[in-house]
Amino acid sequence: MTLGRTRGVALRGVSGTVVEVECFIGQGLPAFEIGGLPDTALRQAAQRVRAAAAGMGESLNQRPVMVNLSPAAIPKQGTAYDVSIAVAALAANGVLRAEAAREVVHVAELGLDGRLRHVAGVLPAVLAARRAGHRHVVVAPDDVAEARLVEGLRVSTATTLEELVGAYRGLRGGDRLPEAADQALAPVVPGPGRDLADVSGQTEARLALELAAAGGHHLMLTGPPGSGKTMLAERLVTILPRLTADEALESLAVRSLVGEVPDGGLDVVPPFVAPHHSASVPALVGGGSPHVLPGALSRAHRGVLFLDEAAEFTQSALQSLRQPLESGRVVIARARQQVVFPARVQLVLAANPCPCGQAWGKGLGCRCRPTERRAYAARLSGPLVDRVDLQVDVPPVTLASLGEGAGESSAAVAARVREARSAQAARWREHGWRLNSDVPGQVLRRAPWRLPAEATAAVDRALDIGDLTVRGYDRVLRVAWTCADLRGRERPDRSDVGRALLHRTRGRAAA
Ligand SMILES: [Zn+2]
């Protein structure tokens, strides 16, 4: 009697646990049992494994096959255990040496014809394997490039189960399966099409974008259709700092669960995700059954979540974003488990100034009734929009502004953003914050960060006459610090506060 043993990975969200896959073939009536909290798709591995084995002339139909996945208490889902179960079963059957595959982590589905097939979540699974100290994985040919994103592991592959088993059988002593053939991996670079230099005019909006990138502030753009709000929002990622290798892996691991890993390689440009306003709450924050998948919010992790036509999203959808935006993660509770997805995003909202979209400038073109305009504005208020530090008007592009020619390139702006971010990091390090947008309002209102009355005169007055709430006051202070950082100054002065106040009250007047 032999015990076949190898490894697979149980994924829960983007975190994974390496699972031991054991197989024992007994005496008695034929059966194929899988223990250790399998879901329906995993139980059906029995059919796929038997068919694939039969295809290579090995029968698993004569005797009882018992598969055990441990630790048993972790729920296990999906088809990614197929190959590990097949290898363990064939080892138990004496087809390959049990020792050869024992410490190898297999992450692939089996077709009935014996082919190794792609599965979602290869990247988080391989990351989990490395974290647990494993150094060798087997994935489907389609998933080799994705697995290779994780350094320090040997990645092997095979077209079919027969080929894989043949390779295992050919191993002598301490030999290991050969490394998969090299695939060209070039870093993904941003498309040449997108650059801030493409945006003509829009001086105010460009400055707001720079402030947003520098201080990590959420941003709301208000303007009529066709004014270029989407074009501006898309370019925010071109002026944000590139992701570090670890951040890029973290971001890609989430997207791997929904099959969004680019062929190229490590994507170091922050992701830009723009869900449609009809998106459901699960589509936005994650959910689903039986597999819990990340929503738009987590797919935008380490990047930008853009809500165009923000007033058209349901209130429940907008509200569902609030808590994750505060905590930087989404927690989805299920009967047996809790799934956590990372969700550190910068939010950009875009909205028309009114239902007809024409209430900009003096508002002469607007055909909406005052009640309609008020109802529309009300949809864009509340706790979510309260977290948006920067609100800016985006007027239509005029012939005069087109004459201004191209603005600065993304590269030039990104350089200032980097400088401003290092100033913030140095200033707030001892408090554990990185960006001005992380700093609680009361900190900025108290010594030693409190600004002299001379600098805050305008904003103090706005608070006194009720033009600003205390929260609005705090947002102005946060943005003022970012204005100062972009100018390379120690502390905000009167002009920085004035500029920050401009970005606050203008948006409010339009709404
Ligand atoms: Zn209108």
Automatic annotation (TrEMBL):
Pfam families: ChlI (PF13541), Mg_chelatase (PF01078), Mg_chelatase_C (PF13335). SUPFAM superfamilies: P-loop containing nucleoside triphosphate hydrolases, Ribosomal protein S5 domain 2-like. Residues 215-398 form the AAA+ ATPase domain. It comes from the Bacteria. Gene3D superfamilies: 3.30.230.10, P-loop containing nucleotide triphosphate hydrolases. GO terms for molecular function: ATP binding. SMART domains: AAA. InterPro entries: AAA+_ATPase, CHLI-like, Mg_chelat-rel, Mg_chelat-rel_C, Mg_chelatse_chII-like_cat_dom, P-loop_NTPase, Ribosomal_Su5_D2-typ_SF, Ribsml_uS5_D2-typ_fold_subgr. Signal peptide: none annotated. Belongs to the Mg-chelatase subunits D/I family. ComM subfamily. PANTHER family: COMPETENCE PROTEIN COMM, MAGNESIUM-CHELATASE SUBUNIT CHLI. This is Magnesium chelatase family protein. It comes from Janibacter alkaliphilus.
